[in-house]
Write a structure and sequence with these properties.
Elements: E1 4-10, E2 15-18, E3 24-38, E4 41-54, H1 55-64, E5 70-83, E6 89-102
Parallel strand pairs: 4-6
Antiparallel strand pairs: 1-3, 1-5, 2-3, 3-4, 5-6
Amino acid sequence: MNKIIVIGHLGRDPEMRYTASGQSVTSFSIASTRKFSAGGEQREETDWFNVSAWGRLSELCNQYLTKGRQVYVEGRLHLRSYEGRDGQTRWVNEINLTDVQFLSRGAGAGDEPPPYDNEPGIMDSEPVGDDADDLPF
């Protein structure tokens, strides 16, 4: 089983692009901070996660999410590689989004999104066929 759940705040506004076959993909990053005590002093630790949403879920994230907004994301952890500008292969972990809950309004956020049905096949939340290789980023 491959499932990850993260609650955090967007570190930047989402970016929506399209694959060569026309499928939308939106990417954004979220920061999740935990507070703990170490040696009698309060500390914080922040982890950053890259997130990719596909299809209708991509469109909703692009429309309603903004930098700073708190969000619940659920998905599948995916390791992918790409070639950097220096020709070196780079590896990155990202969350392929299967469910999202908008928890707070971000600065300048518009109306709340309508509820959606997250049944398989409805949201087209994962790349289909060779689309994963067509990512423009």
